[in-house]
Write a structure and sequence with these properties.
nucleotide-binding, helicase, ATP-binding, about 15% strand, 11-stranded mixed sheet, about 475 residues, alpha/beta, 2 domains, DNAb Helicase, Chain A, 17 helices, EC 5.6.2.3, Rossmann fold
Length: about 475
């Protein structure tokens, strides 16, 4: 394995840091201690990290002291490093060390493959999934430390707080949802979050998620959609309708006037340049999703949101009970969100039990196979439109009247724009409550409702309704 390491380059990098300690941050942003092949060099780099965390000078004396405290000091290695000439340009040498470290990891992976595939006798799909995960971690330079240590966590947290301050206290920490009241409740979708969007059929959960996707695309973020229910062309029709304000039905049949054709053409030109990726394979399972999303994220790091439409249509990975399969899928999606450091949004159907209640607003218990989903989700959003039930009730009354030979005049009129609610039923890092929106049916589009107070119900409180002025 001589071609998989270069002791001289490692020694030169450490010497350059001693000569000019300001270079440490540049090196530390690209290398971790385990990237050094020689153990003594790894220990020395860790000592430099400790000095940096403790606001101590990165020089021979303090590094020597840190190493001595850990019984890791090697006088001969220290002399070799100090006597080595510093590098005129450190960047290409850092790249070389990183390249050799990755190659060593890949060599180790080959032995892991033999162990996993032969000695453990795991199912083929599981073997492929484990290998892909390890490969993704190697290529993304993931740390192999078992625990994140306090100094590093404190620095990362302070850096996050400063970043939020630079944003001007906007209240949106994660990915902007595009809806003011929803942003106020959620502060956006965080990296590593699993968000469940649930509703009964015809409530508009797919339209709502496509609106979220459009907002991310408009912010020049990448979006990946796994559509198990409808082909990619239908998704694009809905997005174009929402973007152009042209009714979906008119776009479907091509019944457009000159102005509408112009608007549609302009929207198509915009969408062509967006980073939108759709997998409309209707037979996807958790292995399929993980494999394709890892590859896509590696190729397009700008991917910032994944949408799965919808959870119950995902195939199982064996002959397990359906509850166990859903548990495996929800847990797998949560781990994938954390691994790729991006929100994963999964749509879910609700049980029919909601239909039998007088108040048909969904609750957590209405989720199908709710135990696993409720446990793994960081956030659960319910899409609710009361007019859907009102219209259904009117049609039932009309049918009963006709069956009895009576005339029935309905007082209910179908409106082009309906009041709707996005109910935050679970929010691991904030309050639950209701975001009030309007649903424009012709364009399958949810929009903000102006001047309406947000109703917030904090978890743990029995009755605590607070009116908050929308941002």
């Amino acid at each position: 394995m001589e071609n998989l390491h270069n002791i001289n380059i490692e020694r030169s990098i450490l010497s350059s840091i001693f000569f000019n300690p300001t270079q440490f941050e540049e090196v530390a942003s690209r290398l971790k201690a385990s990237d050094f092949y020689l153990p003594a060099h790894r220990y020395m780099f860790e000592a430099m990290e400790a000095c940096e965390c403790g606001d101590l000078p990165i020089d021979e004396e303090f590094v020597r002291k840190k190493l001595a405290q850990e019984n890791r000091f090697d006088e001969e290695v220290m002399l070799e490093v100090i006597s080595t000439n510093p590098l005129p340009s450190i960047a290409p040498y850092v790249t070389e060390v990183k390249e050799k470290s990755i190659k060593r990891e890949l060599v180790r992976l080959t032995s892991d493959i033999t162990e996993i595939a032969v000695e453990r006798d795991m199912p083929a799909k599981d073997v492929v999934d484990v290998i892909q995960q390890k490969l993704y971690q190697i290529t993304q330079e993931a740390t192999d430390r078992e625990f994140r240590e306090s100094p590093e966590m404190v620095r990362a947290t302070v850096a996050h707080i400063k970043e939020m301050k630079l944003r001007g206290n906007q209240g949106v920490v994660g990915l902007d949802t595009g809806f003011k009241e929803l942003n106020h409740l959620t502060t956006g979708f965080g990296e590593g979050d699993l968000i469940i969007v649930a509703a009964r059929p015809a409530m508009g959960k797919t339209a709502f998620c496509l609106n979220l996707a459009q907002k991310a695309l408009d912010l020049n973020k990448g979006v990946a959609i796994f559509s198990l229910e409808m082909p990619a062309e239908q998704l694009m029709l809905r997005m174009l309708s929402a973007k152009t304000s042209i009714p979906l039905q008119k776009i479907k049949v091509g019944n457009l006037n000159d102005d509408e054709w112009t608007r549609l053409s302009d929207a198509c030109n915009v969408m062509e340049n967006r980073k939108l990726f759709v997998d409309d394979n209707g037979n996807a399972d958790i292995h399929h999703v993980r494999s394709k999303l890892r590859k896509l994220k590696s190729k397009h790091p700008e991917i910032s949101l994944c949408i799965i439409d919808y959870l119950q249509l995902m195939g199982g990975t064996g002959n397990k009970d359906r509850h166990l399969e859903v548990s495996e899928m929800s847990r797998g999606l949560k781990l994938l969100a954390r691994e790729l450091k991006m929100p994963v949004l999964a749509l879910s159907q609700l049980n029919r039990g909601v239909e039998s209640r007088h108040d048909k607003r969904p609750m957590l218990s209405d989720l199908r196979e709710s135990g696993a989903i409720e446990q793994d989700a960081d956030m659960i959003l319910f899409v609710y439109r009361d007019d859907v039930y009102r219209m259904r009730e009117e049609k039932e009354k009309e049918q009963r009247a006709r069956a009895e030979g009576k005339e029935y005049r309905s007082t209910f009129f179908e409106k082009p724009e309906e009041e709707s609610e996005v109910i935050v039923g679970k929010n691991r890092n904030g309050p639950v409550g209701i975001a009030n929106l309007m649903f424009q049916k012709a364009c399958t589009r949810f929009v903000d409702r102006g001047g309406v107070p947000v109703e917030i119900i904090y978890e743990g409180a029995k009755e605590a309704k607070i009116e908050v002025t929308p941002i």
